[in-house]
Write a structure and sequence with these properties.
By secondary structure, the protein is α+β, with helices and mostly antiparallel strands. It contains twelve helices and 28 strands. Strand 25 and strand 26 form a beta hairpin. The N and C termini lie far apart (90 Å).
Length: 485
């Protein structure tokens, strides 16, 4: 019986091995590169467009002479300018090329703001060869997105936005556009990284190695389902050509912008009305927080947050039900929240959690607002200078305010000098800074600061949190208490 069972067992083991190998092969093929991108390219190409803009550039104005008066060459250059000047002084047309894509059958088109910025005329060329003039609906320079509209005789082929949050590093993607003005072109690559920030407040870029060159700006980045998960916007390159580091603004940012441009012709972002900074490890320790998360409020000017009870020194840990990780995330979440919505904001205040109800304002209306001056008590009559934690400090007086060109309402301790070997210098404190708070309590005198230091030591703190203002801009700095005496 044992001899008869052995061949049967070997047969089933061999069959099972073949099944496993085949299934692994199929799974690997499903996850890997497709045999061809041709079907996908053929499906979505009709929705991708080339964009040509033209702008009127003023002719040359002002003196054009390049030789001194009385020079023997003066007559020669005057004759040369007389022959060529009238042509050169005339306004001329300047052209630029870019890409875009159709997002609705009635002719809405998405591209980059920098592609059409300042354009007098915008011309759209479709994949099949049709050309139509475009109307500018609205732009958002903050995300470099623009929305255009064309009027066609019939419905246009369009593509849908996908969920950029589901894109994973390593996923295949395909970019389309008009690189270097060479016409419609396709390139493929993978998602190299996500959540990249370049320089903007609302940046959420997908990094890809799919070739993106000049002229691809405004073109779509597709996933393998044919959905747009990004708008190709920028490249990192030492020579202007693709070296495999391209950036596409994530579709989940773009869709919100496009919806607002379509409805209002402009963006309407939520505004909380606070100045914030990240919670670093030393700041977390100074505040007694369990971990370095959230957004530390450094200032609360007049606005929604102030009306809702937010205070400087609060750490925002939750906004409208979303856990706050850092300042960048909070800015994006607030901006994406509807203007006028009443939200619950959870803050950590002196070790206790409080929930505040705040009605959001509109950021575009609040930009450029001057922060409110912080209230305070009367300053002491006898200012004293002292050296603490590498800082030479002196309470503000009328004479010192005038000397430092500060507002009459400014209160606190002026930093007169900073020891360049101190931790304070390493963390950016400089002469001219004003310390207004220590351990989230106002300081008007040297005695106030020394009292806060002693309290922090008695509480077992290793560092103390200072609120420092420079040119009116506040920030928190945590300094070690080892040099507090």
């Amino acid at each position: 019986m044992r001899d008869q069972a052995t061949p049967l067992r070997l047969f089933w083991l061999g069959t099972l091995s073949m099944v496993l190998i085949l299934s692994q092969s199929l799974m690997a093929h499903a996850r890997g590169a497709p045999e061809s991108f041709a079907d996908l390219a053929e499906q979505i190409s009709p929705s991708v467009v080339n964009i040509t803009t033209s702008t009127t550039v003023a002719g040359r104005t002002g003196p054009q002479g390049i030789v001194p008066e009385g020079s023997p060459f003066e007559d020669f250059f005057r004759e040369f300018q007389d022959r060529n000047g009238p042509q050169g002084d005339r306004p001329r047309r300047s052209s630029a090329l870019g890409s875009g894509f159709v997002i609705s059958e009635d002719g809405f088109i998405v591209t980059n703001n920098h592609v059409i910025e300042g354009a007098d005329e915008i011309q759209i060329e479709f994949f099949e060869g049709m050309e139509l003039p475009a109307q500018l609906i609205g732009t958002d320079p903050n995300t470099d997105i623009a929305l255009l509209k064309v009027e066609a005789d019939g419905p246009l082929k369009f593509v849908n936005f996908g969920d950029s949050d589901t894109a994973r590093v390593g996923d295949w993607v395909m970019a389309m556009g008009n690189p270097l003005g060479q016409g419609f072109s396709v390139s493929a690559g993978i998602v190299s990284a996500r959540n990249r920030a370049l320089s903007g407040t609302y940046d959420d870029y997908i990094q890809t190695d799919a070739a993106i060159n000049r002229g691809n700006s405004g073109g779509p980045l597709f996933n393998m389902d044919g959905d747009v998960i990004g708008v190709n916007t920028a490249i990192l390159s030492p020579n202007g050509g693709s070296i495999g580091i391209g950036f596409s603004m994530a579709s989940n940012v773009v869709t919100r912008v496009v919806d607002q441009l379509k409805e209002f012709g402009e963006t309407r972002r939520g505004w909380l009305g606070v100045r914030i900074q990240d919670v670093t490890d030393d700041v977390a320790e100074a505040l007694g927080l369990p971990e370095a998360k959230g957004a530390l409020v450094s200032d609360v000017p007049d606005g929604p947050a102030k009306e809702g009870g937010v205070l400087a020194g609060d750490v925002i840990v939750s906004f409208d039900g979303v856990e706050v990780i850092d300042t960048r995330q909070l800015v994006r979440v607030v901006a994406n929240t509807q203007v006028g919505k009443s939200v619950r904001v959870v803050v950590n205040r002196e070790g206790e959690t409080e929930t505040l109800k705040i009605t959001l304002g509109r950021r575009e209306e609040a930009e450029g607002a001057v922060p409110a001056a912080m209230p305070g008590e009367e300053e002491p009559d006898a200012p004293v200078t002292a050296d603490i934690m590498g800082l030479t400090l002196q309470p503000l007086s009328d004479e010192l305010r005038a000397e430092m060109e500060l507002d009459e309402s400014a209160k606190g301790l002026a930093v007169m000098s900073v020891d360049e070997t101190s931790e304070a210098f390493e963390k950016g404190l400089r002469a001219g800074d004003i310390i207004t708070e220590a351990s989230q309590s106002q300081v008007l005198s040297i005695d106030d600061l020394e009292a806060r230091i002693e309290e922090a030591k008695e509480a077992g703190r290793k560092s103390i949190l200072l609120l420092v203002r420079r040119g009116g801009d506040p920030r928190f700095v945590a300094l070690s208490l080892e040099s507090g005496e």
